[in-house]
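User: Modeling request: complex.
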Amino acid sequence: MIEAFYMAISPSYLMYMTIGVMLGLIVGTLPGLTATMGTALLVPFTFALPTGEGIAMLGGLYVCAMFSDAIPACLVNTPGTPAAMATGFDGYPMVKQGRGQEAIVAACFSSALGTIFGAACYLLLAWPMVSIALKFGPAQFFWLGIFALTIIGSLAGNSILKGIAGASIGIIISCIGISHAGEINRFTLNIPELRGGVSLVAALIGVFAVPQVFSMILNLKKQEFVAEYKPEKGVILKTIKKVLSAPVHFLRSAVIGSFIGILPGAGSPIAAIVSYNEALRWSKDKSQYGKGDIRGVTASEIANSAAAPAAMIPLITLGVPGSAPAAVIAGALMLRGLNPGPELFGHNAALVYSFGWSLLIAGIVVFFVGMLATPLLVRVIKIPLRLLAPMIMFLAIIGAYAIRNNVFDVYLMLIIGVFVFLIRKLGFHPGPIGLGFILGPIIEPSLVQALYISHAVGVQKVFFTGSVNIILITISIVSVSAVAISRFRARRKSVLT
Amino acid sequence: MIRFIKLIQDSDLATGLLLLFVASFSYAGVGDNIWEDYGYIDWVFPLMSCFILFSISAVYLVKSSIKIVKGTTISDLKIDKSEIPSIINVAVYTLLLFCYLVLLFVFGFWAASILLLWSGITYFRPEINLSSIGKSLIISIITCVVAYIVFTHIFYVPFPESRVFM
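Assistant: Request completed. Predicted assembly structure:
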């Protein structure tokens, strides 16, 4: 491992990894460009490099995209990638309160900490973590998804019913296209383009960015900028101290992120959502969540960044990628004749460990790059809304198009955006709709697989037995009950006062 | 008709009707294979969401029916006259966006994108004069150049080509 460390700190490793980090900054910041797309596009460039440097560059891009996607989420309430959806819940209100710099610094520092924690897990705990992850079958993934859905209680705003309805609408939209089981068309209205389903990224841009731009246009007369911004001295140190002053919060988010990261298919978005929900549940003062609580930003960012290096653990140990970018990195290794899995660990241990060290160092580089870029990036909120709104919309259109090079996705994005903008007036929150859209494709395939298995062994055995199932069902029930009780108490209090 | 418009300005009734429409529309899309062998597996998940929507819409419809009977409906969705110009702005801009998607294939990325950005920025300016038009044009061109370089040269996204300017 020491030899691998020396490899990782060699100038060539550091240089290529830093280039990857820089590219990750662009990929995450621009809506529509995902970490998967970025790593996939970078693979051909890495062919000219030695294997170690090549995968370090891909790793650098991946971990930095997990930070930089928080920038548009905080500044203009448009998540750069699905993983940053939960970051915007508190990041954007912070920006609106004139705490933009604090929000970005918190996201950056939390991301760096999360990445370092995830990379440390990769280096030290790969095998024990994988043995737990192997206990997750389709039914367990289904319950994990249901557990993640319980966050609706905290996202729904004033009406929990509207939150549940929003998530159901998101789930129905996510079901459009060819089904997982019988490969039949669902809700395609005989439109051939809908058979491929609705692009997740385009839909999320539609749910978050388009209504945001329309709101900016509505408020042009009342509001000139997104928010006031005055550079504050010492905000970096103050924010770092704030983040470090909650070690339990950090540890909880990092453990959740790392564990969910190693579950194949779950990935950073679900890690961020579950972590946000848990941070809220364990917090003594829940009143500020969703209104600009720094803990909301850090919970989401620590978890989604810890999930990125952790997603490499099942790839390196078992040959099963934990996320889509990890699958791209697996492809890059295979193109070089290296098969990810126990064999790689046995024959190329130095490469495997140097990659882990590179991810850890990338976390540190992300912090410095983020700190350098923050003063510049935060100025976005000082751009007049009459300029910012058309620019965001333009980037949203290009981003939605870029994901599949399909203009139909842009039409869908606009239609979803107009729909969400209109139903916002009825008191619907975009969060649950986005949540349903992200979790639908995770929950449904697991449910389908589990139902097929249950034909052989029975529904009860598949869904309701086994320690992992029982734990997940229990915490889901506890989560729902806690939300119901807290809402009941809040309502009673408001009636009494 | 006027009474209906007044009633629909109550957010509970509007929510109930909207959810009922979405649920019915989704339910109508459920295929016939649902009753064949394992066909239900294809539909169980969206149907669950659909039934949830039906249930929630029923709650809102019952709630608003009680309000109608009691005569306690609230017009909380009523649009204030001062908001109309802003709503027109949103409608015009939405129309511009759909036009852009058509023009993108007619004139290609450059002409259509510069036109979209320029028209958007100029439309939202409080005062329109030669200098502001020029500034809007420069900002539009710079934004398009940056987007073009990043998306096509770094990330190899092929933009639609013009059918007019070959």
